[in-house]
Amino acid sequence: MALSPRSALSPRSARSTRSAASDEPVPHTTATGFAVAEDGTRNPDNDVLRAQDVTVTRGPVTILRRLSVGVRADETFAVTGAPGAGKTALLAVLSGVLAPDAGQVWFNSRPLHTLGDRARAELRRTHFGMMDGRARLMPELTVLENVALPLLLEPSSRDTAFAAARHWMGRLDVLDQADRCPRELSTALLRRAAVARALVVRPDVVFADEPALGLESAELDHLMRILVTASRSHGIALVLATDDPRVAAHADRQLELRDGRTAPARTDA
Amino acid sequence: MIRIVLGNLRGGRPADHIRVFGTACVAAVGTVLLLCVMAYASAADTHGMVRPLFAGLLVLAVTAQLTAVGSRLTASARAARTELLVGPNSEPEQVRQLAATEAGLAGSLGAVAGLQAHLIARAVFERGVPGGGVIRDMLAVGGEIPVLGLAFVLGVVPIATMVASTLALPEATRAPAVPRPARTVTLGAAGPVLLAAGLTSELLPDVLAGPVRLPGDLGSVHPFAAGGYVLVVAGTALSVPWLVRQVSGAVAVRTRQPALLCAARRVEADTTALTAPLGLLAMTTTLLVTSRTLRTTVPGAAAGDLPLLAVVTAATVCGAAGLLAVLVETARERKDAARAMHTLGADASVDRLTRVLGVLLPLAVAWGGAAVAGVVATWPLEFGGDRPALPVSARAVSAGVTFAVTLAAAVALAMVPVSRRLARDGVHGWGRPTPAVPPPSG
User: Fold this and answer.
1) 3-state helix, strand, coil in chain A (%, to 5)
2) Strand partners, A26
């Protein structure tokens, strides 16, 4: 996986390097091909995304407890569990929205756990597609502007961004809603627009938190088929967080969480 | 009902306490000012009733507007408390009755406190306390306040707070305060028509109607010129929010900067809520720009000084309070938007710039548009038109400009950190009430 041009390496110390633009530490690579982070930790596997012994606490509550998980390229991976099990927190940690209190998170050869806020935000912009629990679109923007927004955050022209947004909206059958406000759309159309927004940057990984929340069965199947097909056809790893078995059924692998820990295995569907 | 209101005060959130205390304070200050106006009218009855009536109406308008803003800002806490006291299925009518009772009680207490404060201050200055010339003039020490006038003030202030507090109650919603406006002709589009009519009227020759003498020492004005000037000011107040909407929409469809796009769309969505505050600020700007052109060079006060300062003060205070109310009411949407931007990987600087532009864009368009309208409104004078308004002194214009600019700039500067704080920490009982939403999963 090629790094963003802004992440060009420059020497920082004998063991670690730092991005020129973001001034954040990035790893160097050993002779065996494993990346090594600033703190000496190394990517323990060649998964596109990997969390190792991750712990997240909020005040007195421990949300994730020494959790380890890996996601391979091109696969659809579902994190399941009851509400409060830590699914959303795990997605937030894997996507760099949340920094873990302990443990390591690797995206390809980049250690997210040592990156600062700006570098993690840059990764989200350039390599990740995000779809949160309520398909939260900006209420004041049109649907088209919402879908184009991730591209506008990067240095691309308005025409290019809107052309790409229209392309994905067309593929997801929401192009006719382009000039409407999100609040005027049904839940199903909102979800499709959110999927289009997640895919518009052609990411390496798409994170979808409860992608089918509040959808009828027919719409749920339709949306999941679109999401999984688009991900597979573009070689995108898809990480789902859901407590709905109908959504999890679309995954290649599942990981069930219970109280922030891995529940007894139910893998390899 | 009164018992419920008292219970509300005993166990309410800080927002409830601030609302009640604020309403009482506003009512008290309004009462003091109304009593001053009444004593002033009584002491100098040669001026007739025009000025006192005008000043009294302005005081009542500001009292009502500030009470309304307080009611809007704390609607969420009020709804939560009402639900607790009345039950989960409280009718909107019950909420309105509670709001009216509470505002009436607070307004009555404030009016009585204001009366006491006024009487004590007058008594102190009547005993010949040295100094305090301005305050003595303001209190019109020596002027009599008729008993009927006292009763009127004690009645009208609580009524104003009751009506304002009840009418200002917003509906529970999670949607933006205003959806993105449809491309339809709105009332604001009538603003340019009024502007054109006003300018035409200012140019009409005085042979159609001679000057009209105003009561007291207010002098005389030409009815067509004065009517045209009023139309220009009203047209500006209507046009500016419409102009802000048009400019924001035009910016949004052209820019590629995410911060400017989000700010422009935010402003466009809020334009209906911003109509009154922006209209008031625009009106103030137009008045000050035309007054600056029309100011007299004769030393000393002029007939238009007090009316100008009173209108500028009232309009700026009401406009600034309205801006703050809109900011708090849309805090939830701003927070959602900030969270969505963060999730998508936007830098914190994008969010910060969005907030700054969201404040600057409407104010810049409003001030610029109103200033241009003010300059245009004085053009007829160059073509032999009549003076459209009362003469004002240079000192009054300077004082008005200083007050308006300082207050508006202070509010604009304060809005950015307030907006940041609201986006970070949420509103916690402030702003519009929200209906129940399904609990988040995971």
Assistant:
1) 35, 25, 40
2) A17
Three-state SS for A205? strand
Each residue's pLDDT tens digit, A195-222: 999 999 889 999 999 888 888 888 888 8
How far is A119 from chain B, CA to nearest CA, in Å? 9
pLDDT per residue as tens digits for the range B159-218:
999 999 888 876 554 444 444 544 444 666 788 888 888 888 877 766 566 666 666 666
pLDDT of residue A168: 92
Dihedral sign (CA A159, A155, B340, A135): positive
Lowest average pLDDT, out of A17-31, A121-135, B19-33, goes to A17-31
DSSP, collapsed to helix, strand or coil, labels residue A206 as strand
- Which of helix, strand or coil describes residue A62? strand
Nearest chain B Cα distance for residue A92, angstroms: 9
Give the C-alpha distances (Å, rounded to integers) separating B321 from B70, B367, B387. 9, 17, 33
ipTM score here?
0.76
CB contacts, 8 Å: B338 with chain A: none
Local structure of B433: helix, strand or coil: coil
Of A79, A68, A74, A26, the C-alpha closest to A48 is A74
CA distance B431 to chain A (A): 17
B173 part of contact set with chain A, CB < 8 Å: no
- Kindly determine whether residue B442 and residue A184, on different chains, have CB atoms separated by under 8 Å: no
Chain B residues in contact with A137 by the CB 8 A cut-off are 340
**pLDDT of B291:** 85
SS3 content of chain B, % helix, strand, coil (to 5): 75, 0, 25
Read off the pTM: 0.77
Residues A185-198 as b/e (b if ≥16 CB within 10 A, e otherwise) read beebbbbbbbbbbb
Q: Inspect the interface and report whether the beta carbons of A88 and B440 lie closer than 8 Å.
A: yes
